[in-house]
Amino acid sequence: MSWPAPTSPCGPTVGAAVRKFVDTVDEATPALVDPARRKTIVDAALDLADSLVTTRLEFLRSVVRSTSEAVSSKPGGAKE
Fold first, then answer.
1. How far is Cα 71 from Cα 40, in angstroms, rounded to an integer?
2. Most distant CA pair in the chain, distance
3. Most buried residue among 17, 36, 55, 72 by CB atoms closer than 10 A?
4. From CA 33, how far away is CA 45, in angstroms rounded?
5. Residue 18 CB coordination number (10 Å)
6. Are 16 and 10 in contact (CB under 8 A)?
7. How far apart are alpha carbons 62 and 66 in whole angstroms?
8. How far is CA 77 from CA 11, 48, 62, 80, in A?
């Protein structure tokens, strides 16, 4: 498994969170579990996290866009 680079925008926080999750999965699953199954679980969790981050960014962009439109509008609906 590859970890995010420490110089990535996500920084070491994401790498530490991923390591903690993988360690938890490793501790929670017996050593007899096929490593491919563990990889499937980790990949699914990372896909979920990616979707959540993408949704959060889209929401924040929407809020910024709406706020910008509201602030740049003159009273009565006319834009500057």
1. 46
2. 69
3. 17
4. 17
5. 19
6. no
7. 6
8. 43, 40, 19, 10
Give 7-56 as a 3 state SS string: CCCCHHHHHHHHHHHHHHHHHHCCCCCCHHHHHHHHHHHHHHHHHHHHHH
Residue labelled with tokens 């924040």: 60
For the segment 76-80, the average pLDDT, to the nearest whole number, is 55
Whether 15 and 6 have beta carbons less than 8 Å apart is answered as yes
Report the amino acid identity of residue 54.
T
